[in-house]
């Protein structure tokens, strides 16, 4: 079995250390991504620039419909690199359309699982989720009938939606000031940067001329060019009057609501898969796909969490609850090595190799250490033990969407799995196959590592499904029918 402590050797294959002198400055990180990863990242960045340029062209004649204007504004911000500390990372860097609005870099999916932030040596502890269909998640709430929390966004549900009434909007507020993502030190920096962008006039026409009527301090550029987190005792390093701080907070909320509006648009949340065409009697499943669908609803028990709809339900392929399926720790995550101060003195992961992802339980017990779009409801604190290590059930829509067949996608909250077949095999055999030995060549096929955490592990629906290899393949074939783009979406 691979262990977290083997990570340094693994990361050495992913990163190429920069030779030369002592401590680097903020603009010259101590290591750089591998040439292959850099090449793919450059391609993704070029595509982001192309999409952004097309969206900016639309500002010359914006839609005359308010909802479509909000969608355009949200798209412009999602593809805007200037909203990151080093102006090098748009939100879309982790959420591109060719992969179903999740991680678009095959080499990162294959190796690190997680993605680098604007500070390229800082990585998150989880893989990017898809933001398609995310706006359809309900506001996080406790359902006493089923004894479970339901809704929210993020793997740990921390974007509850309780404040803005929209989990997707609160999710959009996390990355800009997350030190391992876009890295701004203050939400005021996101608002200031937005005020300098070509979409300012559209923003003001939608949300009002007061949106950027803020007296920015003379050092705002200097402050916002320094990666977060802010230094101790300076939680709000952009010094503003109480009135201007209020405007910043409101404008930041409106930025997030615009982004959520775009994510909810037909361009992102489109319901254009083959499965949707089948529901509309415009296509038919192949015999293998049909077998997979029957297994999905039957012996494989997928439909009990990844619901395909029912009376009054859209087929969203999630029930918006959380579960611990016993996913092994992913030793490829650079996060395990982020236990030493970086060039700016920041330590992302004080626990180092001993880090265990507590999922929803950690959010409930102490909130999230990097960003808190919503406060924890104090009445939910007693739910923390029963939610430790549980992770939100993701939608299976676009689960296999990829730009070309050899493109590697990552699965599981930590990206441990690198193929859809592999994670299906895990669901089927987790409790059947033996534990892997160190460096076991059969890992993922004939053996499995131990779960990262066994707390609250799902033992009723996962682990011993009794499926044959052909039945696993049929399940994969069915889930491939959930890829959008099979049909076009028209109003």
TrEMBL record:
Question: Is this entry keyworded Heme?
Answer: yes
| Location in or out of the cell | Cell envelope
Which Pfam families would you find in this protein's record? CCP_MauG (PF03150)
Principal localization reads other
Position of the signal peptide: 1-23
What keywords is this UniProt entry annotated with? Answer: Heme, Iron, Metal-binding, Oxidoreductase, Peroxidase, Signal
Any single GO molecular-function term of the entry would be:
metal ion binding
| Residue ranges annotated for the Cytochrome c domain, each copy included | 287-483
Got a GO cellular component term for this one? Answer: cell envelope
By its UniProt entry, which PANTHER family does this protein fall under? BLL6722 PROTEIN, CYTOCHROME C PEROXIDASE-RELATED
Name of this protein: Cytochrome c peroxidase
The organism's taxonomy opens as:
Bacteria, Pseudomonadati, Pseudomonadota, Alphaproteobacteria, Hyphomicrobiales
